[in-house]
Amino acid sequence: MTKLKLDKVTLEFFPRTGAPVLALDDVSLEVAEQEFAVIVGPSGCGKSSLLRLVAGLVEPTRGEITLDGTPVTRPGKDRGMVFQSYTLFPWLNVRDNVEFGLRIGGVPAEKRKHISDHFIKEVGLEGFESAYPKQLSGGMMQRVALARALANDPEVLLMDEPFGALDSQTRSLMQELLLQIWEHSQKTVLFITHDIDEAILLGDRVHVMTARPGRIKERVEIDLKRPRHVDLLTSPEFIALKRRIMGLIHDEAVRAMR
Amino acid sequence: MPRSSFEAYAAPKKEIPRSVYLTVSATVAISILLMWCVLSYGGFVRSDFLPTPVEVLYAGLDGIQDGSLAVNTAASVGEIMSGFIIASILAVPLGILMGSFKIAEAAIEPVTNFIRYLPVSALIPLLILWVGIGIEEKVTVIFIGTLFQQLILVADVSRNVPSDLLDVSYTLGANRRTVVTRVLIPATLPGVVDTLRVTLGWAWTYLVIAEFVAANKGLGYFILNSERGLFTDRIFLGIAVIGLLGLITDQLFKLLRDWLLPWATEG
Fold first, then answer.
1. Chain A residue at shortest CA distance from B174
2. 3 state SS of A64
3. pLDDT band at residue B4, thresholds of 50, 70 and 90?
4. Rounded to a whole number, what is the distance in Å from the CA of B16 to chain A's nearest CA?
5. A100/B170 Cβ within 8 A
6. ipTM summary value
7. How many C-beta atoms lie closer than 10 Å to residue A98's C-beta?
8. Which helix or strand (DSSP H or E) is residue A7 part of?
9. pLDDT value at position B151?
10. Which has the closest alpha carbon to A79: A6, A177, A179?
């Protein structure tokens, strides 16, 4: 069953000076209920713009985006988002950050605490409830950001290279944590990355994008069995998939460099 | 690890022991005081030009006894606070609007930039003509002098709030109003407090200039009046009091920031 649908979405930017920039060209995409969809592409291919469109932070020039059949016109808590940059509210402690969406949504204190307790535990940050963001490491901040998005119980979780700024050890721990949480929650996820390993490890399906203007070049089904772990990275099936996607991306990266 | 302590202290951006830090600070301060003593007591500079530290202390005691110090300090502090507070009440909200809403920027920024580059001292004759030479004139000078600087600085603070911070709030279900009141404004607070701290220091400059031009009380008046009688010790006293008041207000702002915004303190 289709959860999220992008129908011939085109996005053009009109800079104050110079010609219009075609960021996304006729992108169509379907994400099924409870699917973990990954978009992978070279830098500058407009994959972040695509996510911002789904979030409703940007309006498409043409085309339509629907969530459960309803057109997306503005941001809403049905589409929670985790950014690559650290976006915790520095003046709120971990608990208040996680409860931010619930608080502005008018959820009573007792229920808020119940929910934040659950998600703080889920991301392994028990004991840090009253810590402020400046006291946390990058990985911990992204875990809080994830908990904050999940606490709102969104229909779709949008993730824009959420682990891109982390060191590689922390990143693989975060990937395992995310897999674990996703298996519990069975949320529909749309995940953006330029990291092919990450794309294959996490995704049910990987959409490979072309260099600017961004188009969907190919969809790759990732039929690796779940639950998955990081040790999968060295298996032959994984490497075969990686070789295939690398080939697709490489051509695009070369094209983008020109 | 560097072998000698000298090597350790010469490394850029490295911490040094607190004791070393304090020793260096105290040594420099005491050296300046000593230099002053040598020049004045040693008779190298005529006492008309450079009073001895003790003479300045006595001038201070005299000023306290005859009440002139209190009267002039109170006048200056009253003027500076009035002008500064009125300017801040306007500049903080307008600056935040200017940095975050293009329409507000279009309305306020061009005018502000024009006035900002006018030295407020150039306006003093005009202001005397318009509002006279009373307290209103000093308050107006400080108001104009600080308002436009504050506007630009606060606008920058608000402009530098990461847009991802606002965007993530929208995806958490916030509407525009909530984003402004619960995200944008809190995010600007540390920068706003820093701006106020810096501009209050500048306000002293405008005040003293205003008092030099036309005043019958205030620390600037006190200094100028002392110069007319060649009371160099009283000139020093006036300068020292202004310096001290500046130091106190600066520290108060620092405490206020640490107390109100502990989440924004470094380290």
1. A104
2. strand
3. low
4. 23
5. no
6. 0.93
7. 31
8. strand A2-13
9. 95
10. A6
